[in-house]
Design goal:
It contains 13 helices and no strands. The protein has 2 domains: 147 residues, no CATH class; 44 residues. It is mainly alpha-helical and 205 residues long. It comes from Anaeromyxobacter oryzae. This is DUF3102 domain-containing protein.
Length: 205
């Protein structure tokens, strides 16, 4: 058992048998083999904002601190579950859903394509049989989407403020590293610090 699995098991043991909060923890332990179940549970936690009554300030903090799941992973799980529930509700709610559901990574690719406007209902119907009966790898799914519906749109160019923030962050890390490295001459370290300060000042204008 991994350290994370041990922590999840210990937390689950502290909660009442059959409580919804304990079910989510147990679903997290079974994540790899039961992603549909965990997606369903997390979707309910998110929809009902249950994390509030469990003492967390946000859904993201709950996922990271109690379930040891990154918020990005939780978002992918809930979005993928929502995709499957919209298009294949019988599959999602079937007793043997886990055995029949395609791999999480494949549904996540389709979910992202739909969110980007690349996959319509008719597009899903074209791919449905193959995805459900002979699930491709995520890479193959991406290639098939590109062949049928065109390449994904290029990400929007970062705004000026975002570009400056990245530069300022990189300059500050460089300045701090130069300050700590005894082999860097003081004058050079000072120039790095000045550059970081100048870039940070640009952000405030």
């Amino acid at each position: 058992m991994t350290a994370t699995a041990e922590k999840l098991a210990a937390r689950a043991e502290d909660l009442p048998e059959g409580s919804f909060r304990r079910k989510v923890l147990e679903g997290t332990q079974r994540f790899k083999s039961a992603w549909v179940e965990l997606g369903r549970l997390l979707a309910e936690v998110k929809r009902k904002e249950l994390w509030r009554e469990w003492g967390y300030p946000s859904f993201e903090r709950y996922c990271s601190k109690e379930l040891f799941i990154r918020s990005a992973t939780a978002d992918k799980l809930t979005a993928s579950f929502a995709f499957l529930e919209r298009h294949e509700p019988r599959l999602v709610h079937a007793p043997d859903a886990e055995a029949k559901a395609p791999p999480f990574e494949v549904i996540e690719v389709l979910s992202r394509a739909e969110a980007a406007g690349r996959l319509s209902d008719s597009g899903w119907r074209e791919l449905r049989d193959e995805v459900l009966e002979r699930p491709p790898t995520p890479a193959a799914m991406n290639r098939k989407l590109a062949e049928k519906f065109g390449p994904p749109p290029a990400p929007p160019a970062p705004q000026k403020g975002e570009r400056l923030a990245r530069l300022a962050g990189a300059a500050r890390r460089l300045a701090d590293a130069c300050e700590e490295e005894g082999a860097v001459p003081r004058g050079m370290a000072q120039r790095a610090a000045d550059l970081a300060r100048d870039l940070e000042a640009l952000l405030e204008k």
